[in-house]
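Forwarding the complex inputs:
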Amino acid sequence: MTGLPILSLMMLAPLLGAVACLKAGREQARTIALAATLVDFVLGLMLWANFDVGGAQWQFTERYAVFSGFSWALGIDGIALLLIVLTVFLMPICIGASWNAIEKRAGEYYAAFLVMETLMIGVFTAQDLFLFYIMFEAGLIPMYLIIGIWGGADRIYASYKFFLYTLLGSVLMLIAMFWMVNQAGTTDIPTLMAYNFPVKAQTWLFLAFFASFAVKMPMWPVHTWLPDAHVQAPTAGSVILAGVLLKMGGYGFIRFSLPMFPEASAQFAPLVWGLSMAAVVITSLIALVQHDIKKLIAYSSVAHMAIVTIGLFAFNQQGLEGSMIVMLSHGLVAGALFLAVGVIYDRLHTREIDRYGGLAINMPYFALFFLLFTMASIGLPGTSGFVGEFLSLLGVYKASSWVALVCTTGIILGAAYMLYLYRRVVFGVQKNADAAAMPDLDKREWAMMVPLAAVVLWMGVYPESFLAPMRKDIAALDARLAQAAPKGDAQLKVGAAKPVSAEHDAAHGEAH
Amino acid sequence: MSSILIIVFLPLLAAIVAGLGNKKLGFVPSKVITTGALFISCALSWPIFLSFLNGSAEATVVPVLQWVRSGDLDFAWALRVDTLTAVMLVVITSVSALVHLYSWGYMSEEPDQPRFFAYLSLFTFAMLMLVTADNLVQMFFGWEGVGLASYLLIGFWFRKPSANAAAMKAFVVNRVGDLGFMMGIFGTFLVFGTVSIPEILHAAPGMAGSTIGFLGHRFDTMTVLCILLFIGAMGKSAQLGLHTWLPDAMEGPTPVSALIHAATMVTAGVFMVCRLSPMFEASPTALAFVTFVGAATCFFAATVGTTQTDIKRVIAYSTCSQLGYMFFAAGVGAYGAAMFHLFTHAFFKALLFLGAGSVIHAMHHEQDMRYYGGLRKHIPLTYWAMMAGTLAITGVGIVDVAGFAGFYSKDAILEAAYAKGTELSHFAFFMGIFAALLTSFYSWRLVFLTFYGKPRWEQSKHIQHAVHDAHGHGHDDHAHDHAHAADHAHDDHHGHDAHGDGTAGYHPHESPLNMLAPLGILSVGAIAAGFVFHHAFVSEGTGEFWKGALVFNEHLLHAMHSVPDWVKWAPFAVMATGFLIAFYAYIRNPKFPAAFVEQFGFLYRFLLNKWYFDELYHFIFIKPAMWLGRVFWKVGDVGIIDRFGPNGAAWVVAKGSRAAVKLQSGYLYSYALVMLVGLVGAISWVIAR
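Prediction (whole assembly, two chains):
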C-alpha cells in the first residue's frame, strides 16, 4: 500500500474520466462519469481503511519538486481525510442526480464535474502553499461553468456574482501568500503551520486570508452570492456547492488561519463571533419568509456555516471537532435536501413552495426521507446535525455565554423555517393537480437517498467513527492555539456554601 | 437486568417494521407487532418496579454504545435503572400498551393505521430513552425524540391546516424550552466537567454558594444552571409562558392526547427536576422559581379550564394545571409527592382522555360539550369510567380513611406546601387549594354537561351529518371534518329536530371491547393506585424505596404529618364546594351559567380566550419575526449588500470602462498631461513622506 501514490491516483482518475467524457455522447458520458467517481469512492474507502488513526500526522505523503520553491506535494491528516471521503461519497450521487436532468452538452457537463472533483481533492491534499492556491481558485471555474451554462433562467447574473465575490478575497490571499513564503522561506504547509509569524504581521495576513475564506464560507454579510448561485445551479451543482465547496472556507480557517496566525485569530475572534451571531439570527429570519425552496435551504446553509465559524473560533477541542462535524453533516444534509428538492423539481419544474402541498399523500417515501433530512438540519439528536451543533455550541459557551445564547436561538429559528417549509410542501391537502400526480421515488432516487440517510444516522448515533481520525490533529491544533486562546467569561469561583443549603444538605444526609 | 434492553428497544424495532412496512405489511400485522411489543415491554417493566418496591433491586446501568468523545467530554448510550426510572417504566409502558390496544378500536376507520401505530411505538421508545438516561445528553435525545413523535402525532391528520399549525407550534415552542435545556447542559459541563448525571449529582452540593459569570454578570452557579434546565422542563411540561402549545396539541387523535399530552411526555419536565433534585437543592432561588411557576400554572390553567367547551381542551388545561401541582411540590422539596402525583395522574388522566375519546367516538367526532347531554344511559360503561377518573382527579376521599388516587397524591402535595412554611410555599398552598376548587368545578361541569341533562345533539353539525348520511357510507376521513363543517354550515339555521327530544334521531353507540378494556384497567388504577402505593412514595421510611434516586426530605415528611387539621380538610372542603357549584349551575339551575356570563362578560371572555396568550405571542413574536425576515431580505440583502456590493462593483466597472474609453482619445497631448499629473503626484508623495 505504501508505495502506491493513492492521492495522485485519486486526482488522476476523474481527470482521465473528464477527458473521455469530452468526446463521448450523453449516455456514454454519464456512464464514464459514474464509473470514474465510483473508482474514486473505492479509492477513498481504501484511503480511510489504511489511514493510521493515531499514527503520523501527515500520511500518504508524496513530493515531486517541479521547479524551485514549488513542488507537487500531497499528504493528508485526519481533517483532510474526512473531507476527501465526503467529497468522493457525494460525487457519484451528484452524477446520479444529473442522470436524466442534463440533456444539452452532457459530455462537457460531466467533464466539468470530474475536473472539479480532481481540484477539490487537490485542495484537501495539497501540502504546498501555491499548489493549494491553484486548486482552491481553479476549483471555482468548473462551478462557474456549471452554473453559467446548465443553470436556470438567471444563470448569468448568478455565476457572475459568484465570480465577483470570490475575486477580491483571492487576490488579497495571494499577496499574503507571497509575503509569507518570502518571510518563512518555504512553501511547505506543515512547516508554515508551525512557523511563528510576527504578531503584527499576523493581523494583516489574517485579514487577507479572512477575506477569501469568509466569502467561501460564506459569512454574513458576504453571503449574498450563495442564494443566487444555489437557485440557479442545477441540482447536482447545488449538492456539490453546499456539500463540498462551502467546506473549503472552513478548511481554510482550520488549516491556515488558526494554526498559522493564532494570535491574530484570537484577536479577531470577537469579529468572527459577531458576524456569526448576526448570520444565525438574520439569515434564519430571512429563510422564514422565502417562497423558493432552494433559496430557503441556501439561507439555512449560511446559518449553519455560522455554527462552523463559532466552533472554530471557540479555541477548544469541542468547538473545533464540533465545527468539523457540522461541516461533514451539513455536507450530507444540505446536499440531501437539495437532492430532495431536485427530485420534485424534476417532476414539476418549479421551486415555488406554493406549487406543492400534500406530497405525503402521493409520495410517502419521499416525505419520509425529506422528514429525516429536515430533522437532521434542525439538529435532532440521533442525527448528524445534532452532534456537530452540540459540540460547537458547547465549545463556544466556554468562551462566551452571550455568543452561545445568541447562536443557540438557531435551534428555535431553524425548527421554525424548516418545519414551515415541510408543512407547506409535504403536509396539507393536494391543492395542485399536477403536484398530486407526481409519482414517488424511483429506483435511481432511492439509490441516492438511502446512502445519505444511512450516513446521517450513523454520524448521529456513533460519531466516534468520524471523531477518531481527526482527534489527534485537532488536539495538536488546540495545543497550538492554547497560548492565544481568549479566557472564557464564566470564571467559576467556588465559595463557601451558604447556610441555607447547608441545612438542606443536613436534611438530605439524614434521609439516607 | 438486561431485560431493560428489550423493554427499550423492542418498541423501536416495532416502529421501524411497522413504519417502513406501512401498507405493504397490512393493518393487522403492523398493529399486532407494535401492540405486542408494548405489551412485552410492559410485562417486563412491572417485575422491575415490583423488585424496587419490595427493596430487592439495586440501581444498575447497562452500557449500550459509545456516543461522543471530544476532549474531556465523553458520554455513551446507556440505560440506567433505579427507583425513579422504574416508576416511569411502568407508567410509560402500561399506559402506552393500553393506548395501543385502545387505538385498535378508536382508529379502526383510519386508512393510515400502520403509520399511526409506528409513531406511537416510536414515541414510547424515545420516552423510555429519556427516563433511562444516565447522562444529560441522552436525556436530551429522548427529550427531542418525544418532541418529534409528538409533532408527528399532533399532525397525524396532516390534511387539516389546524393540525399542521398545532404540530409546528408544539415543536417550536418546545424548542424555546430546549434552548434553556441546551444552555443548561453547556453550563453544567463547564462547571462539573462531565455530563454524567450521577457524577453531577454527587458534585452538586459542593457547588452551592459558588458564583459564575453569565451574560456579562455574576450569578450563583447552581441558580443559573437549574433555571436554564428548568426552562427546558417548562417547555416540555407546558408551564405558564410556554404552555400555549398543549391545548392546541388536542388536534391530534385522542389516544395520542392520553398517552403523550397527559400521562407521559408532558411529565418529562417533572421527571427531570426530580432526577436532578440534588442540583435544585443546591439553589434555593431556583427552587423558589420552580415553586412560583408551578403554583402560577396550576392556578392559571384551572381558571381557563372552567370556560372551555371542547371536552378535550378542558382536560388539556386540567393536565396543565395538574403539572403545576407537581412542579410546586418539587419546588418545596417534596419530590416524592411530585412523583407520586405524576404516577397517579398518569392513570386517571389517561383514563379521562380515553373516556373522552370514547364519548367522541360515540358522538360521531363531536367534541363540543354544548352539544352533548344525557349520554349516561346511552354509553353507561364509558360513563362509569369517566366517573372513576373524575372522582380521582377531584381527590375524593376521607382523611385518614381512604380515597381515590388523586386524593392521596394531591393532598400530599398541598400538605407539603403548607408544611414547608415559607411565604412562597404558603402562596403555592393557597393557589393549590383554589385550583382544587376549580378542578372540582370544571371536572364535574364536564360530567354534568356530557352525561346529564337532556340531549342537545341536534345542534351539532357532526351529528346532523351522521343522521343525514343515514348510516350510508359511515364515517368519513377525519381530515374532511372541516370540509363537512363548511358544507353543513348553510343548513345550520334549519337544524330541525324532528324527534323533539334533542337527539335528532341519532343513537350513540357504546365503544367496542378493545376500547372498553383499557378504560376498565385504567379505572382500577384511578381508584386504587393512591391507596396501594402511597406508603411507598410518600410515607415514613420512603427513603428506602427511593434509594437516593431523588432527594428525600424526612424533615418535610414529619412536618407534613403535623399540619393543622384545617389544612388536611381544606382539599376536601373545596372539592365538595366545587362539586356543589357545578351541581347548582349545570343540574339545578341550568340558566345560571348564561346569567353569570351576562354579569361578568369581561372575566368570561378573558378566561375563554386563555388570558390572550396566543394573541400576545402572535403580536410580539410571530409578526415581528416575519417582518424582520422580510426587512433583512429586501432591505438588508438586496437593498444594501447587493446594491453596494456586487451590483455596485459591476456598475463601477461598467462606468469606469466607459470613462477609460474616453481617456483613450488618441491625442498625444492628453496622454502627456496624464503622465505629468501622475509623475507630479508620485514625486510629491515620495517627498511628503
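Chain B touches chain A through 83 residues (CB under 8 Å).
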